Each structure stands twice: as C-alpha cells, then as structure tokens.
Inverse folding.
C-alpha cells in the first residue's frame, strides 16, 4: 500500500483530469487501470459497482472519483479526489472562457468555435453509441432506449417520468 | 452560423437563478447531465439559442476534464463572472455529492446491492435514449443549415471513436484542425 493515499489520490486525479479530453466516461478505462491494476485500491467487481452507483446517482458521472476517494481514504479521500479531478480544469475553463468572450468578434475565434462544434457533436454521438452498447444487453433494454429517444426528441414530456417507468421495469427483473 | 447578440442585462440570470438551474440539472441528470443542461438552458429558460449552446458545449468539450463541469464554469463565467462560475459549479456538484456520499456509506456497509443494480439497468437504458434524443437535437442546426463541412466532420468523428475505437485525443487532434480550417475559409 502507498504510504500516503491522499497524496496519491490527489496526484493521479489531478493528472488524469488534465488529460481527460472527452469527459469522465472517456477517462473510465484509465481510472480502472490505476485503481484496480496499479494501486490495488479495489477489486474489479468493486470498481464496476462504483461505476454503477455513479451512473445511478443524479449528477455528473465524474462523481465516480468521489466514490473511489471515499473507498480509499474515507471523507478526506472523497474530498481530495473530487477537488483534484475538478479543480485544475475548472480554473483553466474559467480563464479560457474569459479570453474567449473577449475575442468575440475575432475571425480566428469564430473559426475555432464553428470548427469545434461538429467534432464535439460526433464525439457525443460516439459516447451515446458506446453507452448504448453496454446498456442495451437485451431487446427490452434496447426498446426502452428507442422509446426514450423518440419521446425525448419529439415531445416535451419530462424525461424523469420515462426514467421512473424504466426503473420500475428494471426492478421487476425484465432487463 | 451567425451568433446572435450577447444577452442584454435584463436576460441575465441572477446568481440564485444560476445556482437553482444547475442544481435542478444535476439532480435530474441520471446517466449524465448534458441532456438536462440543454433542456434547462435552451428549452426552458431560453438563456441560450441552440447554436450558442452547441458552441459553448463544444468549447467545454475541447477543454480537458469533465465536460459538464467545464460547461457550468464557462456558462457561469459568461453570465456572472467569477461568482457566476462558482455558483453554477456549486449547484452542479453540491447536491449530487451529498447524495453519492450517502450511497458510498451504504455501499461500504452493505456491499453490492442487487435491487439497486436492477433499477439501474432500466434507468441506464432510458438515460441512453435521452442522450440520443439530445444528440439529434444538437445535430439539427448543423445538418439543416446550408451545405458545409460540418456534417461530414461530425460523422467522421463518430466513426473514428464509436466504430474504429481509435483513442479520443487522436481523433480530436486530427479532425479539429481540419474542421477549424474549413470554418476559416468558409465565406
């Protein structure tokens, strides 16, 4: 075991956050490698459970790092891991946003912005595809996904109702 | 795509409104907060147009780190400077952190929870559907506008990451300059 788990948590997650282009889900494989294989903080099964809890909880999926931190070093670990994962990138985002808004009319800024939109869209589409492949492991789950997609696109019904219905269906053991 | 004028001061959300909006987004955001952020900001509050949202989100995605976290900072900074960024971030992270800590304690006490994982299977399937719906909505302005390179780039990025499973940073590093180049020379 590492002598100072808090320091290890802070170091790993701060580093990871700066390389995690594409968001928390894109960084999952790397978190798994560190938490299970390198540091032996937890078993494979425990990591999968934490991913599931993070997905099931409302809020950004990045809170999986809070769970990992808590598992490693209690409340202090949870706090350190969360701040390390979010702090550096938030500061960066803040300053980039300031600079960005100052050059609102600059041609390079307009070009970069217009150019990034389609790439970003393709990446979000890809993560939807990857998540669908893990979530829709049988036909019923795929049908729920398809219905939610259609209703979400075509109507203004609050999607929480669909989530509640899907959760109940899951509870009955159909999925 | 022409960016509409910046919001007039009257349209600017107060700090309290910002905090509440992001808290609601995060508390509704099962399986990712992006769909809910768009629902709140574009469709309910109309703080941004569909195009502005796409642009702000693309910027957040281009920055390293969790996208929605970055987005809350970018959005909050634009509408309320440093306090706005802090308040939006606190709204997005605070409530779910409290909930997840309770779950972490329960998990540490009771271990794997069968009931939870069953409910989860259903909710996750629905959450993916909602994400697909949002991708379709975000794609609409791009695919419906006058012909440009956008749709081709978006489809290539999708294929690279989803089908070919190339590392995301590489796909990004190749496509982003190409796409920005097209945007630069487009008149």
């Amino acid at each position: 075991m590492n002598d100072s788990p808090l320091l290890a948590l802070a170091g790993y997650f701060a580093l990871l956050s700066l390389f995690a282009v594409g968001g928390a889900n894109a960084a999952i494989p790397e978190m798994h490698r560190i938490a299970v294989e390198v540091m032996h903080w937890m078993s494979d099964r425990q990591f999968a459970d934490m991913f599931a809890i993070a997905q099931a909880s409302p809020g950004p999926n990045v809170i999986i790092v809070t769970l990992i931190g808590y598992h490693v070093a209690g409340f202090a670990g949870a706090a350190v891991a969360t701040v390390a994962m979010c702090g550096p990138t938030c500061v960066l985002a803040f300053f980039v946003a300031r600079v960005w808004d100052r050059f609102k009319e600059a041609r390079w800024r307009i070009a970069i912005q217009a150019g990034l939109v389609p790439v970003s869209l393709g990446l979000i589409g890809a993560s939807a595809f990857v998540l669908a492949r893990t979530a829709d492991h049988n036909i019923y789950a795929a049908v729920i996904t398809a219905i939610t997609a259609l209703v979400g696109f075509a109507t203004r019904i609050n999607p929480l109702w669909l989530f509640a219905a899907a959760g109940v269906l899951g509870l009955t053991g159909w999925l | 795509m022409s960016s509409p004028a910046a919001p007039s001061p009257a349209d600017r959300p107060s700090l309290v409104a910002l905090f509440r909006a992001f808290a609601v987004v995060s508390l509704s955001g099962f399986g990712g907060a992006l769909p809910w952020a768009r629902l709140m900001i574009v469709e309910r509050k109309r703080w941004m147009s569909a195009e502005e949202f796409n642009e702000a989100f693309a910027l957040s995605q281009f920055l390293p780190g969790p996208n929605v976290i970055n987005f809350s900072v970018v959005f909050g900074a634009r509408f309320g400077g440093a306090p706005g960024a802090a308040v939006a971030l606190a709204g997005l992270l605070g409530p779910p952190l409290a909930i997840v800590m309770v779950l972490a304690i329960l998990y540490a006490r009771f271990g794997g929870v069968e009931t939870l994982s069953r409910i989860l299977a259903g909710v996750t399937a629905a959450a993916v559907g909602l994400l697909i719906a949002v991708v379709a909505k975000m794609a609409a302005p791009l695919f419906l506008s006058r012909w440009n390179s956008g749709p081709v780039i978006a489809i290539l990025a999708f294929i690279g990451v989803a089908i070919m499973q190339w590392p995301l940073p590489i796909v990004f590093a190749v496509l982003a300059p190409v796409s920005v180049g097209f945007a630069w020379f487009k008149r």
